Amino acid sequence: MPIVVTLDVMLARRKMRSRELAEKIGITEANLSLLKSGKVRGIRFDTLAAICAALDCQPAELLSYEAGPEDDAQD
After folding, report:
1. 7 neighbors 51 (Cβ within 8 angstroms)
2. If I label 54, which of 7, 44, 62, 65 is the partner at 20 to 30 A Cα–Cα?
3. Angle at 13 between CA 36 and CA 1, to 5 degrees
C-alpha cells in the first residue's frame, strides 16, 4: 500500500499512549491499532480530524504517500 501511516511516531512525539488517544477520540484501542499498522482501507475525515485535534498536528504529519513499483506499472 503506497499510503504510510505514521501515527505511532506522532504518539511518541506527544508522549501519549494509544489508550489515551482512543479514549479522547472515541474509538476502540483495537481500531486504533489497526489504523496505526496501516491495515485499514480508509479513515473517516471526522476521525482523522479528531486525531489531529488530540495530537495537535496536521493530517500530513500522520499520512504520507510512497510510490512503489506497482504504481509505476499503472501509467
Report:
1. yes
2. 65
3. 30
C-alpha span between 74 and 25 (Å, rounded): 37
> How far is the C-alpha of 8 from the C-alpha of 62, rounded, in Å?
9
pLDDT tens-place string over residues 28-44 = 999 999 999 989 989 99
What is the pLDDT averaged over residues 51-74?
86
- As given in the structure block, the three cell numbers for residue 12 are 511518541
Distance (Å, whole) CA 15 – CA 53: 15
pLDDT (tens digit per residue) in 3-31: 999 999 999 999 999 999 999 999 999 99
Structural domains of the chain in order of their starting residue, each with its CATH number: 3-72 (1.10.260.40)
Q: Which residues pair with 64 in a beta bridge?
A: 4
pTM: 0.84
